[in-house]
Amino acid sequence: MPESIQTLRFAVGSATGPRSRSWRLWVPKHKSDVYISSRRLGSSVKVSLHEPGPSVFALTKEWVEQTGFKTPEGRDRRLAIKWERPRPQPPRHVARPFTIIVPWDEVLDRGISETGDIVWVQAPPENMCIHFDIIYLSARAQVTGHAGARSMGTGLVGEVQLQNVVRVFVTWLARRMEDPLRQHVMKIRSARIIDKQGNPLEKVGMLAFGTEPNPDADDGTQVGTLLDVTRSQ
User: Fold this and answer.
1) For 160, which of 6, 29, 164, 216 could close a Cys bridge (C-beta 3.0–4.6 Å)?
2) Cβ contacts of residue 88 below 8 Å, gap of 6+?
3) Per residue in 78-103, pLDDT tens?
């Protein structure tokens, strides 16, 4: 098994040109927990795909303690959202617990070059989006190459190996933005965001999180999704 932390970094666009927010997936040494965060938001919010579970999307403990953030009465201190993720089961031994969606117009001139070892995915055409899927394969999975390579034409970002011998792939695929997703993005971008003094903020990055029923099994498990959106005006 790997003797050090495993890390994958990925984004849409290019290091010196227009690009999306960059993402980081990592697995601590000798662990089967998978963590995901935006590289520049990693100190404030992250996704935790715990083993055995549950999975969590939440503010980080460190950020809450450092900032003194106060949650609304009755809410979890870290605004945590928990869900039961799909796990590899017979006969396919494959599961998709989490997806990041990057719309075509989120590939922006961000004014700062991105450095480091990042896998760059080409920006999709207009009205398309890139889906980064986190795919779990048990040791019994019969897969040549990476998940979805033959059946769907997915591209590979990379692979990590968990302590429990499960393989985890990050794959990508360009998909058309259907009307429900397009309308949801428009709704998020129309939100009024203000600073502490009540002044409206422009060009604010936002992460919209949600879950949907697992399409591969009627077992009550949910697939988590993060939608990366920038409010530009």
Assistant:
1) 6
2) 94, 95, 136, 137, 138, 141, 166
3) 888 999 999 988 888 889 999 999 99
Show the tokens assigned to 66: 């450092």
Peptide bond into 213 cis (omega under 30): no
Backbone angles phi, psi at 126, to 5 degrees: -55, 140
* pLDDT in the model for residue 1: 63
Answer yes or no: are the C-beta atoms of 30 and 43 closer than 8 Å.
no
Domain coordinates of the chain in residue numbers?
6-231
Task: List pLDDT tens digits, range 113-169.
Answer: 777 899 999 999 999 999 999 999 988 776 777 777 777 788 999 999 999 999 999
Structure tokens at 211: 């879950």
Residue 77 tokens read as 């201190």
Give pTM, 2 decimals.
0.91
In 3D space, the residue among 205, 100, 201, 199 whose CA is nearest the CA of residue 157 turns out to be 100
Query: Cα–Cα distance between 26 and 7 in angstroms, integer?
Result: 4
